[in-house]
Fold this protein.
Amino acid sequence: MSNTTTEGNKAIVLEAFQTLFNKRDYKEAERYWSPNYIQHSAHIEPGREGLFNLIKSLPPTLRYEPGTIVAEGDFVIVHGRFSDFGAAVNWIAADILRIQNGVLVEHWDVIQDEATEEQSKSKAPMFGTSFPKHSA
C-alpha cells in the first residue's frame, strides 16, 4: 500500500469526523459513510443511520478533537476526544475504521472516560498535553 493511499485514508477519516461530529452536516456526511456501513460499537445502533441518529440526539455542543492517527492498508485508527455531549466526563476513544473506495464501511471503537489529574495514577493526561478542566 502506498503512502499516498494511507495519507489519503487518514484525510478521509479526519474530514468525515469533522463533517459529522463538529459541523453536523448530515447530507455531506453521507459522502463519507457507506449506506452499508457496519457498526461494531456497543454505543451505537446499526448502520450509518444508527450513527447519524445518535449524533442528532446529542447536544449541539458536542466536539470531537482528533489526536494521533495511523493507517495501514484499508484501516485507520484515530485516537480522539469527545467532549460536551451531555455526559459527566469526556470520552477518549480509539476509533478503528475500514475504508473501501474512499468511504467508511466498517467501525470498531474502544472508549474510556477521561481521567482528571486527581484521578490519574500516571499523572499524564490521556489526551493531548493537559487534563480536562472539569472534574468528574
